[in-house]
Amino acid sequence: MPNSSSGGTSSSGSSGRGGGGVAEMMAKAVTTSGDFYSGRTGVQGVQDRKDAVREKRRAQKNTLSQWYGMTRRPLSAEEKQEVELLQYRNFVDPEHQHQAPKRAAEVGESEFMEFGYFADVGRNKRRRYKSFADEWIEENPDFEHVVATRIKRNTKANQKSKAAAAKKAAMTAAKAKEKRTSKRKSKRDIF
Predict the structure, then answer these.
(1) Fewest CB within 10 angstroms: 38, 46, 117, 172, which?
(2) Residue 119, exposed/middle/buried by CB under 10 A (0-12, 13-18, 19+)?
């Protein structure tokens, strides 16, 4: 098989088509543009990469993702006292005075905590009803009549549909039984 320089690639770097070769390819290359090393898609240096990793670790240490982004902050003396009272609340609780004093576990051990006020008002604390209709009537007494008529109408409709479904099921069962029985008359039926 004879060697030809017109097809394929050659090891010298020049192609058979153009003549410019490596210089021509480098002119088209992305790396020769001026903003390649400094632009948004630029190549990072080793030191820049190390600094970015350190900064990421520092940010992750200060705000842990599993703590919903809460930042770690030093506690004041008053807050430390509150945490200590929470830890030893079993000493003060009259229901647990007969038991051996125990320290409440895991209270104040984490550095991620928030202080605030708890409001004892909310939907869960309101009176709970059996259904949404009961709650709706409680909020709007004018709708009691509307809800009562709708319940009555829906109950009647449900009873009718159940009766119709039961009748239909009985008819299909009777037809299936009739199909299963033999059409020939037995000796007992003749006499």
Answers:
(1) 117
(2) exposed
Distance between CA atoms of 90 and 97, rounded to whole angstroms? 8
Residue 141 exposure: Cα atoms within 13 Å on the Cβ side: 0
Digit-by-digit pLDDT tens for the chain (191 residues) are 445 444 444 444 444 455 578 888 877 776 666 666 666 556 677 888 899 999 988 877 766 555 666 666 777 888 888 888 777 766 666 676 666 556 655 666 666 677 766 555 555 555 666 666 677 677 777 878 887 888 888 899 999 999 999 999 999 999 888 888 766 776 766 66
* Contact by Cβ (8 Å): 125, 146: no
Query: Into how many domains does the chain fold?
Result: 3
Supply 175's token pair: 């037809």
* Residue 190, phi then psi, degrees to nearest 5: -70, -45
Task: Decide: 7 and 16 in contact? Cβ < 8 Å.
Answer: yes
Residue 107 lies in a domain: yes
Q: Do residues 146 and 167 both lie within one domain?
A: yes
Show the domain range for 112.
74-116
pTM: 0.26
